[in-house]
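Good morning,

Attaching, inline, the C-alpha cells for the sequence recovery test we're adding to the shared suite. The designed sequence is right after.
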C-alpha cells in the first residue's frame, strides 16, 4: 500500500479540496483532464506538451479553471521561441467554460478552444508563446519572412504561426482583459460567430494582433494592438510582409471594430475577401463590417486595406503616417466617412476598380495624392472568375465634404466614370485636381478652393466645372478642355453629421499617450520581431555579420557614449542620443579581418555588442545582357560575355548593393550582370558566407562552387560554410538581374 501511494504521488497531479470548494491542482504531467471547477496552486508549473492534444484539457460543460496567478509553461524561460510546441490549455466540445487569472507561456498555442460555446477567457496573460525567427535584418529584407494568411481551413494559422489564444468554431465566446505580447499572433478567431474580444492588449507581436477567418457577427473593441509588425527597416525597406494589427480574411462579415489602438503595424486594418471569392466563386467577400473610431496611424503599408468586398463602413478612423491611408481596391458600395489621413507617403485614399462608394468628410493632407480613383486594363484579372462575375469598373462614386490636399494632386480620377465631386474644400495655396484616361465625371460642383486651383483634364473630352465657391483674390486655372461655369454661391448646405459609433462592450482607454515615442522611425525589429522603442538595448548583440562595416543598433531614449572599443577598429558616432546606429569599420588601409567588441554607456547601463569586420578588395565588372546572352537560356553565351570587356568596372572594399529599383552606374537598371572577384588572406578555420541576391547568383571559393541560386527571385539570403586553411583564398561571384528589384551583398564571418 505504501508503494502504491508513493507511485500515485509521483504520477498523478496533487489535488486538495473541501466539499463544495474548487479542486486545487498542482499539475505534474501532460494531458490532465479538468472535469470540475479547479484552482491552480501558486508558482510556475513547467510541463512539456508536444503533440497538440493539450497540457490541460477541458471537455466538461460549465467548468471554471482559475489559474490563481500561477504560470503554466511548456518550455523553460529563455527557450528559442521558434522551437516551442504543443498547446497549453485545450477546451474542446464544451459549453460555458471559463479560464481566468494566470499566465500560459512557452507553447505553440497558449489557449486553444474548439466548439466551445459561451467560453470566457479573462485576465489571462498568454505572452511569450511561439514566433518565427525572422531572416530579414535592418540592412536587408528576406522574402521568406512574408506571411501567407490565405489558407486556414485546415488550421494552417495555428500550425505555421502559433498564437497566444486561438478560438475555432466557437459561438458567443469572450476574450476580455487578456494580454498577449512578444509572440507572433495575439488572438485568432476561425469560423466563429457572435464572439467578443475587448479590453485586451495584443501589442508587440510579429504577425497579427487580432485575426479573423470566416468569422461573422463578432465585436472587437477597446483593444491595444500596437507594433504588430515585421518587414520594416526605417529608410531601407517598408513592405510589412502581410503583418497587421487587425486581420479580417475569407468571408468574415457583419463584424464590428470600435476604438482599437492599432498603430505602428504592417497594416493597421487588413481586410481581404479571400481566395474563395477571388479565385473560386467570384462571389461573397468580407462584407458589411463596420470600423469606427480606431487609431491606425503609422502603418508600414496601409492604415486600412479593404479589398474585393461590399458594404463596409469605415468612419472616424485615424490613418495618418501610413504609405496609403486607405487602400480599397475592388471595394464597392462601401462608405469612407470622416477619416483622417495626414502626412501619408503616397495617398490619403487609393481605390482601383471601385464602384458605388462614398467618400464623405475625410480630412486628407500631406500626401502625394488626396483621393485617387482609377480603372486600368488588368486583362488577366478581369478575365478571371471574379472579373467575369463582378462589376470591376471605377464608377458612380460620390466624393463630398472632404478636406483634400495633395502635393501632386488633391483629387486624381483616371478611367473613372459617373462620379460626383461636390462641396469639398481644397485649402492649399495651390491645389491641382486631375482627370485622366477615359474619365467621364457626372458632376464637379460647389467645391471651395484656397488661393489657386488648377484643373487638369487629359481625357480629350470637355469637363464641366461649376466654380461658385471662391475666396477673394483666388484663381482657377485650367489645363485641357475644361468648361468653367461661374455663378453665385449655392444656398447654404451643411455637411452631414459624423456617424456615431455603435455601442460596444469594451471600456478600456487604449490610445497611446502623447509622450509615447511614435512615428515610423520608432519601429525597430530584431530577429524575433518588434521591439518596444522605450527599451534600452543593442542589437544584434553579438556576431554582427559584416563586410567592410558592421552596423549595431542602439535603442532607447537616453544619451549615450562609447566607452570601450577593440583595437584596430573605429566606431561612429562616439556619442549622441538613442535611437542611433553605430557603424564599426576596420582602421587603416588594405585587407583586414578584425573581430571587435563595442561597449556603450547609456541610461545607467553598459551594453556590449560584438562581431567582426572584413575589408576585402573586390574587382567588380558589370555587363549588359540580352536574349542572345541570356544567363539561363544561353549559359555558354553568358559565360563568354563575362569573359569579355565590361560596360563598367570598379574596385570596392565590400559588396553591399541594395539597388532596389535601380542598378549600378554604367549599365541599365534591368538585364545587367555582375562579376566580382577577390583574393584575401584568412586564418585557418570554418567560415560562414552569406549572400543576398536578386536575381541569379553563383559563388565560388578557390574554384569550387559553394552557392547557386540561378533563377529569378526576390531578395533572398543564401548561406554556406566552408573549412579553409590559413593563407590566401580566391572568391568569385557571378550575378544577374532580370527586372524589378536588384540586390547583391556579401558577408563573411567566422563560424567556429
Amino acid at each position: 500500500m505504501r508503494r502504491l501511494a508513493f507511485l500515485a504521488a509521483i504520477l498523478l497531479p496533487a489535488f486538495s479540496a473541501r466539499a463544495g470548494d474548487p479542486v486545487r491542482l498542482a499539475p505534474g504531467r501532460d494531458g490532465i483532464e479538468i472535469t470540475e471547477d479547479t484552482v491552480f496552486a501558486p508558482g510556475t508549473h513547467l510541463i512539456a506538451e508536444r503533440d497538440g492534444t493539450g497540457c490541460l484539457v477541458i471537455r466538461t460543460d460549465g467548468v471554471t479553471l482559475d489559474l490563481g496567478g500561477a504560470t503554466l509553461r511548456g518550455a523553460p524561460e529563455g527557450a528559442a521561441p521558434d522551437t516551442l510546441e504543443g498547446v497549453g490549455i485545450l477546451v474542446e466540445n464544451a459549453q460555458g467554460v471559463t479560464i481566468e487569472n494566470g499566465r500560459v507561456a512557452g507553447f505553440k498555442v497558449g489557449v486553444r478552444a474548439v466548439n466551445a460555446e459561451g467560453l470566457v477567457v479573462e485576465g489571462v496573460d498568454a505572452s511569450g508563446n511561439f514566433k518565427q525567427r525572422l531572416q530579414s535584418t535592418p540592412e536587408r529584407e528576406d522574402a521568406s519572412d512574408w506571411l501567407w494568411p490565405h489558407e486556414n481551413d485546415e488550421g494552417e494559422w495555428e500550425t505555421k504561426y502559433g498564437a497566444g489564444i486561438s478560438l475555432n468554431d466557437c459561438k458567443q465566446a469572450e476574450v476580455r482583459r487578456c494580454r498577449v505580447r512578444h509572440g507572433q499572433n495575439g488572438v485568432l478567431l476561425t469560423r466563429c460567430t457572435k464572439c467578443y474580444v475587448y479590453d485586451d492588449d495584443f501589442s508587440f507581436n510579429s504577425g497579427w494582433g487580432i485575426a479573423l477567418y470566416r468569422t461573422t457577427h463578432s465585436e472587437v473593441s477597446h483593444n491595444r494592438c500596437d507594433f504588430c509588425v515585421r518587414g520594416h527597416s526605417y529608410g531601407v525597406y517598408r513592405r510589412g510582409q502581410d503583418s497587421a494589427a487587425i486581420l479580417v480574411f475569407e468571408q468574415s462579415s457583419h463584424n464590428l471594430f470600435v476604438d482599437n489602438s492599432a498603430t505602428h503595424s504592417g497594416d493597421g486594418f487588413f481586410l481581404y475577401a479571400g481566395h474563395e471569392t477571388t479565385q473560386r466563386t467570384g462571389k461573397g467577400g468580407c462584407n458589411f463590417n463596420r470600423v469606427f473610431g480606431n487609431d491606425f496611424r503609422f502603418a508600414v503599408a496601409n492604415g486600412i486595406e479593404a479589398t474585393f468586398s461590399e458594404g463596409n463602413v469605415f468612419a472616424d478612423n485615424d490613418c495618418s503616417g501610413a504609405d496609403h491611408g486607405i487602400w480599397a481596391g475592388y471595394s464597392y458600395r462601401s462608405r469612407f466617412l470622416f477619416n483622417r489621413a495626414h502626412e501619408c507617403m503616397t495617398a490619403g485614399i487609393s481605390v482601383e476598380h471601385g464602384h458605388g462608394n462614398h467618400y464623405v468628410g475625410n480630412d486628407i493632407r500631406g500626401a502625394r495624392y488626396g483621393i485617387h480613383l482609377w480603372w486600368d486594363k488588368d486583362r488577366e484579372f478581369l478575365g478571371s472568375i471574379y472579373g467575369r462575375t463582378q462589376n470591376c469598373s471605377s464608377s458612380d462614386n460620390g466624393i463630398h465634404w472632404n478636406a483634400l490636399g495633395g502635393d501632386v494632386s488633391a483629387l486624381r480620377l483616371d478611367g473613372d466614370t459617373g462620379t460626383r465631386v461636390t462641396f469639398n474644400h481644397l485649402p492649399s495655396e495651390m491645389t491641382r485636381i486631375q482627370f485622366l484616361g477615359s474619365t467621364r465625371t457626372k458632376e464637379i460642383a460647389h467645391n471651395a478652393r484656397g488661393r489657386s486651383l488648377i484643373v487638369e483634364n487629359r481625357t480629350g473630352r470637355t469637363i464641366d466645372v461649376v466654380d461658385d465657391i471662391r475666396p477673394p483674390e483666388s484663381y482657377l486655372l485650367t489645363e485641357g478642355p475644361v468648361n468653367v461655369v461661374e455663378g453665385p454661391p449655392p444656398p447654404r448646405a451643411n455637411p452631414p453629421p459624423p456617424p456615431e459609433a455603435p455601442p460596444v462592450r469594451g471600456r478600456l482607454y487604449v490610445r497611446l499617450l502623447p509622450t509615447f515615442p511614435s512615428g515610423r522611425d520608432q519601429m525597430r525589429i530584431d530577429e524575433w520581431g518588434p521591439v518596444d522603442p522605450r527599451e534600452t538595448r543593442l542589437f544584434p548583440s553579438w556576431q554582427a555579420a559584416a563586410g567592410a562595416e558592421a552596423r549595431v543598433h542602439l535603442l532607447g531614449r537616453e544619451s549615450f557614449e562609447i566607452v570601450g572599443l577593440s583595437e584596430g577598429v573605429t566606431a561612429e558616432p562616439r556619442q549622441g542620443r538613442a535611437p542611433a546606429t553605430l557603424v564599426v569599420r576596420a582602421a587603416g588601409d588594405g585587407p583586414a579581418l578584425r573581430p571587435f567588441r563595442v561597449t556603450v554607456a547609456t541610461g545607467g547601463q553598459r551594453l556590449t555588442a560584438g562581431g567582426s569586420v572584413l575589408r576585402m578588395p573586390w574587382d567588380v565588372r558589370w555587363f549588359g545582357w540580352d536574349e542572345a546572352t541570356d544567363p539561363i537560356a544561353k549559359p555558354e553565351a553568358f559565360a563568354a560575355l563575362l569573359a569579355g570587356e565590361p560596360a563598367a568596372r570598379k574596385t570596392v572594399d565590400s559588396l553591399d548593393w541594395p539597388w532596389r529599383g535601380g542598378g549600378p552606374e554604367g549599365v541599365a537598371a534591368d538585364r545587367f550582370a555582375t562579376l566580382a572577384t577577390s583574393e584575401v588572406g584568412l586564418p585557418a578555420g570554418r567560415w560562414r558566407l552569406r549572400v543576398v541576391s536578386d536575381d541569379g547568383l553563383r559563388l565560388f571559393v578557390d574554384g569550387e562552387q559553394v552557392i547557386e541560386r540561378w533563377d529569378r527571385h526576390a531578395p533572398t539570403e543564401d548561406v554556406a560554410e566552408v573549412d579553409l586553411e590559413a593563407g590566401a583564398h580566391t572568391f568569385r561571384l557571378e550575378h544577374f538581374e532580370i527586372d524589378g528589384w536588384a540586390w547583391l551583398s556579401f558577408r563573411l564571418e567566422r563560424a567556429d
